[in-house]
Design goal:
The complex is a heterodimer.
Chain A lengths: L1 E2 L17 H5 L15 E7 L5 E7 L1 H5 L3 E5 L10 H10 L4 E2 L5 E7 L2 H10 L1 E6 L6 H4 L24 E9 L2 H7 L2 E9 L11 E6 L5 E5 L4 H12 L6 E5 L15 H10 L5 E4 L2 H7 L5 E10 L5 E11 L8 H8 L8 E8 L14 H18 L4 H8 L18 H10 L11 E10 L6 E7 L5 E5 L7 H13 L6 E5 L16 H28 L6 E4 L2 E4 L10 E2 H6 L1 H4 L4 E6 L7 E11 L6 E11 L6 H20 L30 E6 L21 H13 L10 H9 L13
Helix pairs in contact in A: 3-7, 7-8, 10-11, 11-19, 14-15, 18-19
Chain B lengths: L2 E5 L13 E5 L3 H11 L4 H5 L3 E4 L2 E3 L12 E4 L6
Parallel strand pairs in B: 1-5
Antiparallel strand pairs in B: 1-2, 3-4, 3-5
Classes of the chains: A alpha+beta, B alpha+beta.
């Protein structure tokens, strides 16, 4: 369903078949693990069984003596002297002096078969001196916590801070104490979220080849081939230009495939094995133990509210751990936490804390879901206490264009109010609720991003178009870019092919991250197309012998701007293309730059749940996502992004969590025990696409990929309180946790009954 | 040369004499960063570590983005997405 939809376009806003559909349903699509090369070896990785341990000795002799083993690498095979993020990447790729988490790579081996490689890995003997470890963020921030990386704190950390605090930030505006003094109700609570994994179905996989001459290639499942190139080059001490990286089709990334994990190991092993290509495919257990989950968070929030729902002040103090490396998204969590509210007085404090866990990676709106969980839960608690409608409270305080954001800058065109109004008008709000059922609402925000972008497009001899982009298609980029190019050119959607190309084919592109592909590559593709159109107009003008300025492009053809310019029949793209070999050669367009005009996206979610009082199991009865897309180029993909974000958020709210034992080892490193939602857990997710066009994009696009994961965490917690009277402030709200809360509740039962 | 008022996040202010807003002369984001480093050397580590800059409500990584008198400028932590 699309709200405010328009039909001013011929193709934009339609739902043609996806270009990768047939390949994917027939198994023809080539994913990371499908790459295969002549003479290819297989790699296996030895991983630490300890959360924190000094590596005393690594003996690889037995593995190297095994027939079929062609190479073994340890940290000694990597260059030294790296600093900053490059050192972090190298250290995470292969442990140096210490293993910093359960699953940290300590050695790798290449052999002629996967089984031989695994056998050889078992023969590598590692002697550890086990050290005290710390897992939970509240424990890790204590002054007497085991110091994981002394000296890792940056300039921002005040002297005397606990040893695992590596970054500190504080920002805000106004006077929060004066704001709290104005309020009729001030409430403060602590909220916690656990680390969750991106849960992409395709595990990390690559084939790397690197010769002694420093020239290499890689075929890899990634969201960003240039990031892979730059990071691998840095970690291995080779020149980026000598490494050619080709992305495969991708089976999900959600931010987790914007960095490197085992990719440098395949290149290092290849170099050790005389340049033979080496394939490494992670198991699910390796993915969960050693690739980027998101951070876990412990968050204090305090809000002041008047009786009419006006929020007078907000305060947030967040502690987040992102593993044994700096980089927990505490900054973005805080920026997003109050972003939906117009606040005169607000203060944020954040701590990035080390813990003995894997290095966190980006996960769909990094940090924003945690911030939303804390703030949107407390807003809901306060609205209920004051007897106010939670949607009305949000409408009353919602930011609009021209308002100052909680993190400082002034908002341009945004559509939060429109999503709230659309949610309020949706039939789901009128659906009756029965016993043990409840309804929750929450809003969410993501900035969206432009970033380094390079695109080229070329007109084919038959008047079709080929577009080369550098942003892997994780959410419909190819279809939406094809639609925009076809719309601009005035040709059919099927006459445009969009290819995701390797690092040698374009200038540097940032990954598909920050919900940027349809915005940034799309804007770049439209600009490239306009260049080609200008050239086609010039060719037509030359043919007609008139001024190129007197030619315009209409419906896929060049034509004189008026009869004064000359009387000529329109010259179609097919006619121009057929002759281009003799009228000046190839016709193409390209774009290199940093697309500006990014439009932020707000969303509002409404969820109905039913809680089984005997088991504590929560069933999602209805789920509504309302989000501002700017303009939906291919609405089916936009709806898919909304639904996918909601589903991942539902998993985070109800089931997903990294569970560690007392020994610091991950207890649930398989999908049987790390429970992501499956189809049978879910109703059809209802969607409303709100369109408040982004003036910074030729077709009004805002990124839509990330905002959708943000509201589900608080919306579900809010619905569960509505259903049971129990406010759970520590996710996930798993059946045992909720059952315990229900059973321990006062005999009078729920404090709030279902509305209808 | 336009005078630009730059909004610092709170924990940067201790590196800039406690000021919330500092004024420097600059025509671009890069010029503004360089002028900040010159005027407040203690800010350099934070600026060198990487910052995102919001100009008139849009977060930009373009160091050549133009600034003019009255531009709204905020320094933000480097932003990334998923």
């Amino acid at each position: 369903m699309t709200k405010n939809g328009s039909s001013e376009f011929r193709l934009v806003g339609t739902r043609p078949n996806r270009p990768d559909g047939l390949d994917k349903v027939t198994g023809r699509a080539r994913y990371g693990a499908d790459a295969s090369m002549p003479g290819m070896l297989h790699g296996a990785v030895v991983r630490s069984p300890h959360a924190h341990a000094r590596i005393v000795k690594i003996d690889t002799s037995k593995a190297e003596a095994l027939p079929g083993v062609k190479g073994v690498v340890t940290r000694a095979d990597f260059p030294t002297g790296l600093t900053g993020e490059d050192w972090d990447l190298q250290e995470n790729t292969m442990a140096g002096e210490k293993a910093l988490y359960d699953g940290h790579a300590v050695a790798a081996v290449a052999a002629t078969s996967p089984l031989l490689a695994q056998e050889a890995a078992r023969l590598i003997e590692v002697e550890y001196e086990v050290l005290p470890h710390v897992i939970d963020v509240d424990d890790a921030i204590k002054p007497d916590a085991p110091a994981i990386r002394p000296g890792a704190a940056d300039h921002s950390v005040p002297e005397g801070s606990p040893p695992n605090v590596v970054r500190y930030l504080e920002f805000g505006h106004g006077d929060i104490e004066a704001g709290f003094a104005e309020a009729d109700l001030v409430m403060e609570n602590t909220y916690k979220t656990e680390a969750t994994h991106q849960g992409y179905i395709e595990p990390h996989a690559c084939v790397g080849q690197l010769g002694a001459d420093g020239k290499g290639e890689m075929w890899v499942c990634t969201q960003g081939q240039w990031y892979i190139r730059r990071m691998c080059a840095a970690v291995l001490g080779i020149e980026a230009a000598q490494l050619r990286v080709t992305p495969s089709e991708i089976g999900g990334g959600f931010g987790g495939k914007t960095t490197i994990f085992m990719e440098p190991l395949s290149l290092a092993l290849s170099r050790k094995a005389g340049g033979k290509p080496v394939k490494i495919v992670m198991s699910r257990s390796e993915v969960l133990r050693a690739t980027g989950p998101t951070a876990s968070a412990s968050m204090d929030v305090k809000i002041g509210m008047k009786k009419d729902g006006t929020i007078t002040a907000g305060y947030a103090n967040f502690r987040m751990q992102g593993g044994a490396f700096p980089g927990a998204p505490v900054d973005m969590a805080l920026y997003c936490a109050f972003a939906g509210y117009k606040l005169a007085n607000v203060k944020h404090v954040g701590y990035d804390v080390l813990a003995n866990r894997p290095k966190c990676a980006a996960y769909r709106a990094p940090g924003s879901p945690m911030g939303a969980f804390a703030v949107e839960s407390l807003v809901d608690e306060m609205a209920r206490k004051l007897g106010l409608d939670p949607l009305d409270v949000r409408l009353k305080n919602a930011v609009r264009e021209g308002d100052k954001a909680s993190y400082g800058p002034t908002f341009g065109s945004i559509g939060l109010v429109e999503t709230l109004e659309a949610a309020k008008a949706h039939p789901n709000l009128k659906a009756p609720l029965g016993p043990n059922q409840g309804r929750g609402v929450a809003c969410g925000y993501w900035f969206n991003h432009g970033g380094e972008t390079s695109v080229s497009m070329a007109i084919g001899e038959d008047g079709t178009a080929t577009v080369s982009v550098g942003t892997p298609d994780i959410g419909g980029g190819r279809a939406s870019i094809a639609l925009m190019v076809a719309e601009t050119l005035g040709i059919d959607y099927d006459d445009v092919r969009v290819n995701v190309v390797e690092t040698g084919a374009l200038g540097v592109n940032e990954p598909t991250h920050g919900s940027r592909a349809t915005f940034a590559s799309g804007k770049a593709a439209v600009e490239s197309t306009n260049q080609a159109i200008k050239e086609m107009c010039r060719r037509a003008a030359a043919e007609w012998g008139i001024d190129p300025e007197a030619v315009e492009w209409v419906n896929g053809a060049a034509q004189p701007t008026s009869s004064n310019a000359g009387k000529f029949a329109p010259m179609t793209i097919k006619e121009i293309a057929a002759k281009m070999g003799s009228t000046g050669g190839p016709i193409s367009g390209h774009y290199e730059g940093l697309p500006s005009g990014v439009g932020a996206s707000f969303g509002t979610h409404v969820v109905d749940v039913e809680v089984d009082p005997e088991t504590g199991r929560t069933t999602i009865l209805r789920y509504l996502v309302v989000q501002d897309a700017g303009r939906a180029i291919h609405p089916a993909y936009v709806e898919g992004q909304y639904q996918g974000g909601a589903v991942q958020g539902i998993g985070w709210a109800l089931n997903e969590a990294y569970i560690y034992g007392e020994d610091g080892r991950l207890q649930n490193p398989i999908f049987l025990d790390y429970r992501v939602p499956v189809a049978s857990d879910l109703p059809m997710i209802d969607t409303v696409i709100v369109e408040v066009p982004n003036p910074g994009h030729p077709y009004g696009v805002r990124g839509v990929g990330e905002t959708g994961i943000t509201p589900p965490l608080p919306a579900i917690a809010n619905a569960i309180e509505h259903a049971t009277g129990q406010r759970i402030r520590h996710l996930p709200i798993s059946p045992p946790k909720l059952l315990k809360a229900i059973k321990s509740a006062a005999p009078s039962g729920p404090t709030l009954q279902a509305a209808e | 040369m336009p005078v630009i008022d730059v909004n610092l996040w709170s924990s940067l202010r201790r590196f800039a004499g406690g000021e919330e807003i500092v004024s420097v002369e600059a025509e671009t984001v890069a010029g503004m960063i360089n002028a900040l480093k010159k005027a407040y050397p203690d800010l350099a580590p934070a600026l060198d570590a990487g910052v995102s800059v919001s100009v008139n409500g849009e977060i930009t990584n373009n160091r050549f983005a133009p600034l003019e008198e009255g531009s709204e400028v905020f320094l933000l932590q480097p932003l990334k997405g998923g």
